[in-house]
Write a structure and sequence with these properties.
alpha/beta; five-stranded parallel beta sheet; two-stranded antiparallel ribbon; 9 strands; binds 6-chloroguanine
Length: about 230
């Protein structure tokens, strides 16, 4: 999978070199390129935003600069993800869908967001015909200063689903076995008694059928608590 991220704060993406994602890039399962939006600004101050038509607070990011940054990345078969608190809320199902993509482009807006025409433009039939799909995505119902952290969250959730990226593929298999896909049963390790709290008895015996039943029931209890 190829990932491009466009941002005015490339440093936000340095954690992607760590841990499993760093290794996945070394193994060439994944290739992540971060682009500085300011490099595409042609004015003296390298500014990327302007005042909103219609008035109001804040600044809006220029469609011209975004167009220059995005055009070279809009290759055949690409998912363009525009990060905005007004987007569809990201969840595990969406992560699964994006994990099947060959090219993700994350457009990280700051200020009051990106001029709305950018998403409209790349949704035109000419781009649809090239298998370019535009998605407006939010990571939850709260407002962040920009899309960078949201993109990081999405990249972590999506890339761990790519075969070979996760260190232990059994973890993925177990996740997909349980009904909710990701709401797991509680886990314990040694010691069997910690500060007076004992590990549930059933886990200490070797009855795997009984353990599976107990875990399924516990996952249900957890799911109900989350509702
Ligand atoms: Cl994608 N962007 C911003 N600015 N705030 C958010 C968000 C995105 N998702 C949730 N809040």
């Amino acid at each position: 999978m190829k990932i491009d991220a466009i941002t005015i704060f490339p440093e936000y993406f340095s954690p992607l070199q760590l841990s499993l994602l760093g290794k996945a890039q070394e193994k060439e399962l994944l290739s992540i390129t971060v682009h500085n939006l300011r490099d595409f600004s042609t004015n003296n101050h390298h500014s990327v935003d302007d005042t909103p038509y219609g008035g109001g607070a804040g600044m809006v990011m220029s469609p011209e600069i975004w167009g220059s940054a995005l055009d070279p990345l809009m290759l055949e078969d690409t998912d363009l993800i525009i990060l905005t608190p007004a987007g569809k809320v990201f969840d595990q199902q969406m992560a699964q869908e994006f994990a099947g993509s060959s090219h993700l482009v994350f457009a990280c807006g700051r200020y009051e967001g990106i001029d709305y025409r950018v998403g409209e433009y790349y949704s035109h039939p000419q781009f649809v015909a090239q298998s370019i799909r535009v998605h407006e995505v939010s990571i939850g119902n709260y407002v962040l200063g920009g899309g960078e952290v949201a993109a990081l969250v999405m990249i972590e959730a999506i890339t761990r689903l790519i075969p070979g990226v996760l260190g232990n593929p059994e973890s993925l298999a177990e996740e997909s076995h349980n009904e909710e896909g990701f709401l797991e049963y509680p886990n314990y390790t040694k010691p069997a008694n910690w500060r007076g709290i004992a590990v549930p008895e059933v886990l200490l015996g070797g009855n795997h059928a009984l353990i599976a039943t107990w875990r399924a029931a516990q996952a249900q209890v957890r799911a109900q608590k989350c509702d």
